[in-house]
Amino acid sequence: DGGITQSPKYLFRKEGQNVTLSCEQNLNHDAMYWYRQDPGQGLRLIYYSQIVNDFQKGDIAEGYSVSREKKESFPLTVTSAQKNPTAFYLCASSMQGVTEAFFGQGTRLTVV
Amino acid sequence: AQSVSQHNHHVILSEAASLELGCNYSYGGTVNLFWYVQYPGQHLQLLLKYFSGDPLVKGIKGFEAEFIKSKFSFNLRKPSVQWSDTAEYFCAVNWRGRDDKIIFGKGTRLHILP
Asked: CA-CA-CA-CA torsion for A91, A97, A100, A105, nearest 10 degrees?
């Protein structure tokens, strides 16, 4: 089945540790996105990538990093510099020209 | 900066009532417009989208939306809601030709009373 796979579904980390969230798509989409969802805040864009080996900061990129070495993969690293990392993280992808964004199931990250 | 505003943060309706959720976006040219829904415990799914043509678009589950260019608005409507419409609704905008960035509103939590 075509789609977007995020893993793991739940993730726990100790404060001060970096953690990487996985996002893989087999839809052959060019663009990929990472959003953070907090209650009452909607979806806020962290990073997006329109093409392999290129990505742009979104509205809340501080404390996060990404890479786009392969078309199908767009991992997100939450670094220790992110002041409030506990959140629900959503990955999405779309065709170039943004006809529609398809979402993964999300990863709930809890930092203790 | 590009922005999307949803005016209703939490809406409570009885079954069979009519629904209208507001969405406005900042000026910035030609846009692609979307409404997404997130049912409890489920992932985001597309309700409807507008790219061009007829400004009144119909989506799944009886939802529709109207694009009013002069008001930079894309309001979501449903004539008669059901208990199963309880969910969170998000408006999203892509400013076409600029980049592939998609900006979401803060969402509206809809609660339908049986």
From this structure: -10
> Residue range B78-102: average pLDDT?
92
- Between chain A and chain B, how many beta carbons pairs sit less than 8 Å apart? 63
Question: How far is Cα A91 from Cα B96, in angstroms, rounded to an integer?
Answer: 21
pLDDT digits (tens, 9 = 90+) for A72-97: 999 999 999 899 999 999 999 998 77
Strands A64-66 and B103-104: what pairing? unpaired
CA-based nearest residue to A29, from A111, A102, A89, A78: A102
- Closest C-alpha among A43, A58, A40, A31 to residue A89: A43
Judged by CB atoms closer than 8 Å, whether chains meet at A42 and B6 is answered as yes
Question: Which residues of B are less than 8 Å from A45 in CB distance?
Answer: 101-104
Whether A42 sits inside 8 A of B90 (CB atoms) is yes
pLDDT above 70 for A1: no
Chain B residues inside the 8 Å CB shell of A30: 100
Sign, CA torsion A105/A111/B4/B10: positive
pLDDT of the residue at B110? 97
Q: Alpha-carbon distance A96 to A66, whole Å? A: 19
